[in-house]
Amino acid sequence: MTLVERAKAGAPVVAVNPPRILTLDIERFKGRAEIEFWDLSDYKHRRIHASDVTQWPRTICAAWRWYGNRRVNFAAEWGEGGREAMLQTLWDAYHQADIVVGHNIVGFDTKKLRSEWLLMGLGPPSPWRSVDTLKVARAVFGLESNTLDSITKRLGLQGKTDRFDVECARLAVEGNLRAQRRLRRYNVGDVIASENLYDAVRPWIPNHPHIGLWSGDGSSCGNCGGQLKASGWCRTAVTAYAQYLCTSCGAWFRRNDIKVRTETRPAR
């Protein structure tokens, strides 16, 4: 039976395994440009033209972890296979992922990687859903600072272990082993911090991809897959829905099939 036939027959068109959730963070290196000038103040008034660029900014390393695993993976352009192997490995990770998590993952990491895959001649990986903790922080909360370091520290979570250092990145690219180890620790620390923040804000995420689409349990918590318990009613302007609380993460849900409607509506 095809998926369309299953849907028409009323069978759930879902997988039977939990989704593969990928938490990822990339590190980039600055580009270079050579331009002519009359005096040093020219830099204040000139835009760098593409023809002046001698080296474009690029991703030099990345760390990622599959949710539920302890191991944090790492790939860098100075590793085996060089830059092309690193980018292919990251493409493979996205291709296997159902959900990709990160702080500014939508606005930065994924866009930068897509650009580099395009330049490599690769097509898009298999579609995935994104959960960007920076977008969640900005949309849901009113924190004075939305940086990964600030939020994790205020929540008392294991956060970033260092700060990005351009000179350290430069030395790492040039082959300095000590700088490469430091940059790896920093990159891995960002992934751990991002996953910790994801766990902390998970019950607050209003549009998290419903875990039931992969687990097959459409009546479970959509944010974490946990069990729900009945807890009153969720009321809109004219409809009340049976309300449920997740016993695992604390997210709230409502049942679309158990509801009460008013018999009258405002005249417009």
Description:
This protein is α+β, with helices and mostly antiparallel strands and 268 residues long. It folds into 2 domains: 21-204, 2-Layer Sandwich (Nucleotidyltransferase, domain 5); 217-261, no CATH class. Helix content is 35%, strand content 23%. The protein has helices at 3-8, 42-45, 82-96, 105-120, 133-140, 148-155, 166-173, 177-201, 212-215, and strands at residues 21-29, 32-33, 53-55, 58-66, 73-76, 99-102, 129-132, 228-235, 239-246, 252-261. Strands 5-4-1-6-7 form a 5-stranded mixed β-sheet, sandwiched between helices. A 3-stranded antiparallel β-sheet has the order 8-9-10, with no helix packed on it. A two-stranded antiparallel sheet has the order 2-3. Helix 6 packs across helix 8 (177-201) and helix 7 (166-173) crosses helix 8. It starts with a helix and ends in a 7-residue tail after the last strand. The model has no long low-confidence stretch (mean pLDDT 90).
Q: In short, what is this structure?
A:
With 268 residues, the chain is α+β, with helices and mostly antiparallel strands. The protein is built from nine helices and ten strands.
Q: What is the fold-level CATH name, i.e. the topology of the largest domain?
A: Nucleotidyltransferase, domain 5
* Estimated share of beta-strand residues: 15-25%
C-alpha termini separation: 47 Å
Number of domains: 2
Count of alpha/pi helices = 9
Q: What is the CATH-assigned architecture of the largest domain?
A: 2-Layer Sandwich
Main sheet: strand order: 5-4-1-6-7
Mean pLDDT: 90
